[in-house]
Amino acid sequence: MITFSHVDKTFNSKNQITEAVRDVSLTVKPNTIHGIIGQSGAGKSTLIRLINQLEIHDSGEINVLDYSDIRRLNKESMRMLRREIGMIFQHFNLLESKTVLENVLFPIEAHGEKSDENTQKAFDLIKSVGLQGYEHTVPSKLSGGMKQRVGIARALINDPKILLCDEPTSALDVQTTGDILDLIKEIQAERNLTVVLVTHDMHVIKEVCDAVTVMHHGHVVEHGTLEEILFSARHPVTKTLTAAIGYNVEEIAKNHAHLPNKTLLRFPSHVTSDDILSKVIRRLDADINILFANITPSKEGVMLVSIDSTVPQDVKTALKENGVVIVHDQY
To answer: What is the mean pLDDT of residues 229-248?
Structure first.
């Protein structure tokens, strides 16, 4: 669907050279929500702007959908590719002099393609993002969350196959962030979109993403599924990000270093809802004290416990027999 192969992008300004993207190779699988995360200046926003060539890379190759080496596309092919890609921006990028309806229709009207059919389509999109009744309202009368909903409807007007989200929630409060993320998930599922989402917030990644790419100083330093990144982080930057939401194994151990007999457990999604602990406690007459627990939206769980038993190894064996993974034992 989207592949980067040894891609570089450098900016030159005021005699200063900034290597924004450095030798990046990665694949974004179709029909997934792929998160790109990193600290400020990591190159993540530049990376997704290369997908629709709002920024043109210096070297390497990017393939998108059925278009190969998109840097070499002619104007007509580039226009056709961009129609397949919608984009949501951090600061909404709405036209203040136009109504909600006119903003949603703008990508079509800009190419002289206004029609009754497209107008009805815009009305339907506005309804689908929860803004029915606001079609003739100007952006200054809308809240931040409502403005972002307009941006989402506008991004969908051309029925794209790819949706790029550049920090779509960073200007929103916590409640509104959750609402917008839920909307993005719903839209992705309904339309089978490939979503590439840039954020600096690991909470956002945890809530919506299937796969994650971690960037640092222009490089991809870690890449994997959400669970791999949360539970098996290797790079220091990734560990810092996961520690902020309670998934860094080393941080969990450090925070509970004063407690004895610690064992870190991982519950795969297919066993998270089972009453495994209570069964093991009853069968082996053990006390299991839960010191810390966390769970992902996909129902993968991590739990730090203290086991008080005459034969603790039997308890751990019983947990493993029920599908629980012993991540670390006896810190």
So the answer is: 88
Residue 313, pLDDT score: 87
Determine contact, residues 147/94, Cβ cutoff 8 Å: yes
Q: CA-to-CA distance for 270 and 122, rounded, in angstroms?
A: 41
Q: How far is CA 288 from CA 36, 154, 228, 291, in A?
A: 38, 52, 26, 9
Cα 285 to its chain centre, rounded Å, is 43
Q: Which amino acid is at 157?
A: I
Q: Are 196 and 34 in contact (CB under 8 A)?
A: yes
Instruction: State the first-to-last Cα distance of the chain, in angstroms, to the nearest integer.
Output: 43
Q: Where are the strands (E) in the chain, listed by range?
A: 2-13, 16-28, 33-38, 59-64, 85-88, 162-166, 194-199, 211-216, 219-225, 262-267, 287-295, 301-308, 325-329
pLDDT digits (tens, 9 = 90+) for 266-323: 888 888 888 888 888 888 888 888 888 888 877 888 888 888 877 888 888 988 989 8
- At 80, give phi and psi (nearest 5°): -65, -40
CB atoms within 10 A of CB 146: 19
The pLDDT value recorded for residue 331 is 47
d(CA 169, CA 88): 10
**Which pLDDT belongs to residue 330?**
65
Q: Which residue has the tokens 């891609």?
A: 7
Q: At what angle do helices 116-128 and 144-156 cross, to 10 degrees?
A: 140
The CA radius of gyration of the chain, in Å to the nearest whole number, is: 23
Q: Which pairing describes strands 325-329 and 262-267: parallel, antiparallel, or unpaired?
A: antiparallel
Only one residue has tokens 């093991």, namely 280
236: buried, middle or exposed (CB in 10 Å: 19+, 13-18, 0-12)?
Answer: exposed
Instruction: Classify 299 in phi/psi space as left (phi over 0), alpha (psi -120 to 50) or beta.
Output: left
